[in-house]
Design goal:
It is a single chain. It is globular and about 60 Å long. With 449 residues, the protein is mainly α. The relative contact order is 0.13. It has 17 helices and 2 strands. Strands 1-2 form a two-stranded antiparallel sheet.
C-alpha cells in the first residue's frame, strides 16, 4: 500500500515538478538531469517494484521502476515541445527494436505465467523510453563531451567502490554497485573500450587526457577485480579491436604507438599481481557449473523447436523445471532431490538461446537483425568519421560492442537492467552518428548535382 502511494505521488507531484525544473530557460538543469540519468544506471538496487516476486528465478522479478526510469521520464517530458528542439519518436534503427519487441509479444500464448511475462515486457518498454531520451538529448545538444565526462566519473566511482569492498571489507567477489561481478565486468568492458577509443583518437587537453587515461585504468582494474574468466578474455578482445580499427582505419602515429605501449605495460603489472587467483579461476572452476550451462542450453533448443512462438518471456525457469521434459538431463535418475522438490529450474546463460526459447526462432532472428544493424552501421561510421571528431567513439564502440555480443553467449546482458541501459546509450550514439553520416552523404550528392 505504501509503495502504491509513493508511486502515485511521483506521478502527481514529482514528475511535473521535475519537468518544470528541467525546462529552465538556459538548459543547465536539463544537462544536470541527463548526467544524473546516466550515472543512475549503475544503481540497479534503487527501484520501485510493483507486484514483486523476489523468489522468482527469471530475468525480471516484478514491474520494476528504477531511479533511471524516474529520471528518464522527466528528461523526456522536458524535451518534448521545447523551443527549437526536434523530438524523434522513431530514431534510426528503432524499427528493428520494435520488430524484436513485437515478435516477443506473441510468446504470451504459451506462457504459463502471464504476470512474469508482463515483467519483461514492461522492462523492454522502459528501455525504449531511455533510448529515446538519450538519442534526442544528445542529438539536440550536439555535444558528446557530457557523455564522456559522465562515463569517466562513473568508472572512477565504481573503482573507488571496488577498492573499498576489496581492501576495507575484504570481499573476494567484488561487484562495486552491481548485484553480481559478471554484470560489473560486462558493463565495464563497453565503457572501457569507449574510453580507449577516445584516448587514441580524440583531441584532448592535458586534464581531459589524464581523466580519460585514469578511467581506462579503472576499467581494467575493475575487470581484474571481478576475476571473471569471460570478462578478462573479452576485455582484452575489446581493447585489441579498438586499437586495431584505430591503426588500420585512422592510421598509425607515434603518439598512438606510445599510448599503446604505456597502457600495455601499466595493465600488465596488476594483471601479474592478480595472476595466481585468475589461474585458479580458470583451472578450478566447478564442473557442475559447466554441466548445468550445457544442460540448460539443450533445454533452450528443445523449447525453441517445440514452440514456434516460444515458451513465454521470462518463463524459461518455469519450463526448465522438473514439471517439464525440456531439461531432463538435469533431473535424470533423480540425482538432484533438492532441485526436483523445487518447481523452478535455472535460466540459460546465453542471451541468444534464451530469446529463442522464450520468443521462438523468429524472435531470435529479429534480435540478431537489430544487433546486426547497429554493429554494421557503426562499421560504416568508422570509415565515414576517419580523421574526424567522433572516430574515437566509433572505434571504442566497435571493440566494446563486438566483445559484448561475444560475451552474450555466456551472459544475458540484454536482460540485466544496468547493461541494457548502457547498450541503449551506445545504440543511441550509433544512431546519432549514423544520422550525421547520412546528412553528409546527402549533402555531397546535392553538391555534385
Amino acid at each position: 500500500m505504501i509503495k502504491a502511494l509513493v508511486f502515485i505521488l511521483y506521478y502527481l507531484f514529482a514528475l511535473p515538478a521535475g519537468t518544470m525544473w528541467a525546462r529552465e530557460r538556459s538548459g543547465r538543469n536539463r544537462d544536470i538531469l541527463f548526467v544524473l540519468t546516466l550515472f543512475s544506471i549503475i544503481w540497479p538496487v534503487l527501484a520501485y517494484n510493483l507486484f514483486p516476486e523476489p523468489e522468482w528465478r527469471g530475468t525480471a522479478r516484478g514491474f520494476a521502476f528504477y531511479i533511471t526510469d524516474f529520471l528518464t521520464l522527466i528528461l523526456l517530458l522536458s524535451m518534448v515541445g521545447w523551443r527549437d528542439w526536434r523530438f524523434f519518436w522513431l530514431p534510426p534503427g528503432s524499427g528493428y527494436y520494435l520488430l524484436y519487441f513485437l515478435l516477443c509479444l506473441p510468446s504470451l500464448y504459451n506462457a504459463s505465467l502471464a504476470l512474469q511475462w508482463g515483467f519483461e515486457v514492461w522492462k523492454m518498454v522502459l528501455m525504449y523510453l531511455f533510448y529515446l531520451a538519450c538519442y534526442n538529448y544528445i542529438l539536440n545538444r550536439r555535444e558528446l563531451l557530457v557523455v564522456v565526462y559522465t562515463i569517466i566519473g562513473t568508472l572512477l566511482f565504481m573503482f573507488l567502490m571496488a577498492l573499498y569492498q576489496k581492501y576495507i571489507q575484504h570481499l573476494y567477489h567484488v561487484a562495486a554497485t552491481f548485484p553480481h561481478r559478471n554484470s560489473m565486468g560486462m558493463f565495464t568492458i563497453v565503457a572501457g573500450a569507449v574510453m580507449f577509443g577516445i584516448l587514441l583518437n580524440e583531441k584532448l587537453n592535458r586534464v581531459q587526457w589524464l581523466l580519460t587515461a585514469a578511467a581506462l585504468g579503472a576499467s581494467g582494474m575493475l575487470v581484474i577485480f571481478s576475476y571473471s574468466r569471460g570478462g578478462l578474455f573479452f576485455y582484452g578482445l575489446a581493447m585489441a579491436i579498438t586499437a586495431g580499427v584505430t591503426l588500420l582505419i585512422n592510421g598509425f602515429s607515434m603518439v598512438r604507438i606510445r599510448i599503446l605501449t604505456v597502457m600495455a605495460i601499466l595493465m600488465t603489472i596488476p594483471l601479474l599481481i592478480a595472476l595466481p587467483r585468475i589461474i585458479e579461476r580458470f583451472l578450478y572452476a566447478p564442473e557442475s557449473s559447466a554441466e548445468t550451462r550445457v544442460n540448460l542450453a539443450h533445454a533452450a533448443v528443445r523449447m525453441a523447436n517445440d514452440k514456434f512462438l516460444g515458451v513465454g518471456l521470462n518463463n524459461f525457469s518455469d519450463k526448465s523445471g522438473p514439471l517439464y521434459e525440456y531439461n531432463y538431463e538435469h533431473y535424470q535418475e533423480f540425482k538432484d532431490q533438492e532441485a526436483i522438490a523445487d518447481r523452478l529450474g535455472g535460466v540459460v546463460e546465453t542471451i541468444y538461446l534464451l530469446v529463442a526459447a522464450e520468443c521462438g526462432w523468429p524472435g531470435l532472428a529479429a534480435l540478431l537483425l537489430w544487433l546486426g544493424w547497429i554493429w554494421l552501421q557503426n562499421g560504416f561510421n568508422l570509415f565515414a568519421y576517419r580523421g574526424r571528431e567522433g572516430f574515437g567513439f566509433a572505434a571504442g564502440i566497435a571493440g566494446g560492442l563486438t566483445a559484448n555480443m561475444g560475451q552474450s553467449v555466456l551472459e544475458w546482458s540484454l536482460k540485466q537492467s544496468s547493461n541494457f541501459y548502457e547498450l541503449m546509450l551506445v545504440f543511441a550514439i550509433v544512431g546519432i552518428m549514423t544520422c550525421y553520416r547520412r546528412r553528409w552523404k546527402k549533402r555531397r550528392r546535392l553538391t555534385a548535382t
